[in-house]
Design a protein that fits this description.
The chain is of the alpha/beta class. The protein has 16 helices and twelve strands. It has one domain: Alkaline Phosphatase, subunit A, CATH 3.40.720. A hairpin with a 4-residue loop joins strand 3 and strand 4. The structure holds zinc ion.
């Protein structure tokens, strides 16, 4: 079989060379004929803020009430829309992998959380398609990505990858939490433990006068809140560190998983007007505002992240699906997801205040590549969103669309060893997935 592997590697190499030639040709196209001004490299940097499960039906009334001033300010400068996610409804790792690769789940291979009878957790070596950071790497560009699903063990990319296992750092040893290795100590030192979440922190989400009672009567829920908030605080601290140390990457990809976990655990307390939702009144009093209060914190985090970059930095804020909340069927997990996520883009290529009409999940990757000044591939089924583009923006976007490369598949990461597993951590993660209804 050695010959086969060699052939595969060779095909990969040729594929990469073809892609590189395409990208170099495109750079020439940009700077050369056509009368267009050369593009400022700063304008081809991109900030992405991923908020798992954010839904306009929750955000719009909060924005109206003045509870999300940072997002509201950003949206004033952005083109926005409802993003149609995959139907039937799916789990977040699969959706984010399609957002990052621009291809369908059967192609990128991130279909499940666990595989086999042993329920072995799916690792970063399962990606069968290149993600944005792999494509940027081939184009000589850099990415900092943190907290994204299915990124343990962290892979060597041009830039920094902080895997989604950082919250488990104390259960170690866990090699490859972070790449490059030189950052591991600095990054793991930023971890916020659930125990470090203070009463003051909790009182942001649960009324202060009910806190003791809630902690005594409903320890599981309060512990969940601690875990989720500690994890999001950790990645916010990581993002802060990366934004202020080292060279600024071309793509800065910040992601918060907390809003989805919070929604799965606390949305029901907000939905007690539905006759099939039953909860103890004291429990409802303690937890009914947790979801909205959490989003008010998310807004602060968004404001903080936006504030680290120039005010005109091209930026995408998005979710992978929306959130509907409890259903009559009583089914948890993906059944609570809604098919409409959020998408908003601030860029000189788009007119502010315009709503997207058509906007589907697979359009996001081609559009983000275009924002980075790179063409999508012909084997990416989505389109570059150009409906709310300015006239100059429309020209640039259609030029990129006309120069799609054949395929980026040659840049797919080699499937390597799954990395060292830690049974205790794996079980903790399985428990979390089970509590979300994502696995049985
Ligand atoms: Zn979910």
């Amino acid at each position: 079989m050695e010959g086969g592997v060699g052939m595969k590697a060779r095909r990969g190499l040729i594929g990469t060379m073809v892609i590189l030639a395409g990208l170099i040709g495109l750079a020439a196209l940009w700077s050369g004929c056509g009368g267009d001004q050369p593009v400022d490299p700063q304008a081809q940097k991109l900030l992405v803020i991923g908020i798992d499960s954010a839904d306009w039906r929750l955000l719009d009334p909060m924005i109206e009430d003045g509870r999300m001033p940072n997002l509201a300010g950003f949206l004033d400068q952005a083109a926005t829309g409802r993003m149609k996610t995959f139907v039937p409804l799916e789990k977040s790792p699969l959706l984010w992998a399609s957002i990052c690769t621009g291809v369908e789940p059967e192609v990128h291979g991130i279909l499940q959380f666990v595989k086999g009878q042993e329920e072995e957790l799916v690792s970063s070596s399962s990606w069968r398609a290149p993600a944005l950071w792999d494509i940027l790497d081939a184009a000589g560009r850099t990415t900092d990505v943190m907290g994204m699903w299915t990124t343990y063990p962290a892979r060597d990319i041009a830039g920094v990858m902080v895997s989604d296992y950082l919250p488990y750092a104390d259960k170690g040893p866990l090699p490859k939490l972070v790449t490059p290795d030189s950052l591991t100590d600095a990054i793991t030192a930023l971890r916020v433990t659930p125990e470090a979440v203070t009463r003051q922190d909790l009182a942001r989400f649960i009324p202060a006068d009910l806190l003791d009672e809630a902690e005594a009567a409903y320890p599981r829920q309060v512990q969940e809140l601690r875990d989720v908030f500690a994890s999001d605080l950790t990645y916010l601290a990581v993002a802060d560190y990366l934004a202020h140390h080292g060279a600024e990457p071309d793509l800065f990809f910040f992601y918060l998983r907390g809003p989805d976990r919070i929604s799965h655990h606390f949305y029901q307390y907000m939905a007690v007007d539905k006759d099939f939702v039953h909860a103890d009144p004291a429990e409802v009093a303690a937890f009914k505002d947790v979801v909205r209060n959490y989003y008010a914190w998310v807004d602060e985090a968004v404001g903080e992240v936006l504030g680290w970059f120039p005010p005109d930095r091209p930026t995408v804020v998005l979710s992978d699906h929306g959130f509907y909340g409890p259903r009559q069927s009583g089914n948890k997990g993906v059944k609570e997801h809604s098919e409409w996520g959020i998408f908003a883009v601030r860029s000189p290529l788009y007119r502010a205040g315009v709503r997207f009409g058509h906007l589907e999940l697979l359009d996001i990757c081609p559009t983000m590549l275009a924002l980075l000044g790179l063409p999508p591939a012909k084997d990416m089924p989505g389109m570059i969103l150009s409906e709310p583009a300015t006239s100059d923006g429309a020209k640039r976007l259609s030029r990129l669309d006309e120069h799609r490369v054949e395929s980026y598949q040659g840049l797919a990461p080699a499937s390597g060893p799954a990395g060292e597993r830690n049974p205790e951590i794996d079980e903790q993660i399985r428990k979390q997935l089970r509590s979300l209804g994502y696995i049985n």
